[in-house]
Amino acid sequence: MYLVFEGIEGSGKSVQIKLLYQFLVDRGYSVFVTKEPGSTLIGTEIRAILLNSRNINIHKSTEIFLYLADRSEHIDKVVKPNLNSFDFIISDRSFYSTLVYQGFGRGIDLNFLNYLNNFVVGDTVPDKIFLLDCPVDIGLKRALTRESLKDIDESRFENENFDFHKRVRDGYLNIANSSRENWFIIDSSSDVDTVFDSIKRVVVDFIDNGRN
Ligand SMILES: Nc1ncnc2c1ncn2[C@@H]1O[C@H](COP(=O)(O)OP(=O)(O)O)[C@@H](O)[C@H]1O
Ligand SMILES: [Mg+2]
Questions:
Q1: 191 close to ligand 1 (CB < 6 Angstrom)
Q2: How confident is the model over 57-106, as pLDDT tens digits?
């Protein structure tokens, strides 16, 4: 099963993925955790360009094509080769991030982005997507605190304006609400354990259903 976590900066993706990884491994499943951007050799270099705040003026097409280049490598070298050898692949972000950040956030045509995404991922699409949803001010506050503790600069998005993040949050909700069957909207504004309980409930449910 190919699971993806999506959500704004500071919504809790990294923290919840770690908890889910441990939860599944403790139950005997093999789990592979990965992320976009930056899970391949080329991707690591692209990530450094994409997330460093010195590149705040990156052109929107440059941004799209760098994300797509990272994704091509990620799907080809990481996701596809591991899909059949693990019970679960959990990815921190996916092509949906492009649809939301570049589409809803920067105003690029969604059909065009769907076309490009489809060219890159083909039929390697996630089975289930968790949207960690929280108000922008909560997410940004968490993310800015986290970034202030890092020794590398990955804060380009944290430095975007509030309205951009608001469009991103609303974009996610829009997509999730219009494709309900494989999206799970998780309220991630409460404490880490409460959020994880909601995720666990969903996961246990589809594990149990899969057995029937
Ligand atoms: N539910 C939560 N309540 C309080 N702080 C949280 C919560 N979830 C995550 N954090 C903290 O907020 C910061 C951002 O979380 P993180 O998992 O890195 O978000 P993301 O990966 O979605 O950007 C981290 O420092 C993390 O420890
Ligand atoms: Mg993260």
A1: yes
A2: 999 999 999 999 999 999 999 999 999 999 999 999 999 999 999 999 99
| pTM exceeds 0.90 for this model | yes
Could you give the CA distance from residue 108 to residue 101 in angstroms, rounded to a whole number? 9
Kindly give the number of the ligand 1 atom that is closest to the alpha carbon of 9: 23
Q: Is the CB of 195 under 6 A from ligand 1?
A: yes
Q: Which residues of the chain have pLDDT under 70?
A: 212
Residue 143 CB–ligand 1 contact under 6 Å:
yes
For atom 4 of ligand 1, the residue with the nearest CA is 191
Q: What tens digit of pLDDT does each residue of 29-39 get?
A: 999 999 999 99
Task: Give the ligand whose atoms come closest to the C-alpha of residue 10.
Answer: 1
Instruction: Find out if CATH 3.10.620.30 is the number for domain 2-211.
Output: no
pLDDT at res. 210: 80
In the chain, where the domains are located: 2-211
Atom number, ligand 1, closest to the C-alpha of residue 192: 1
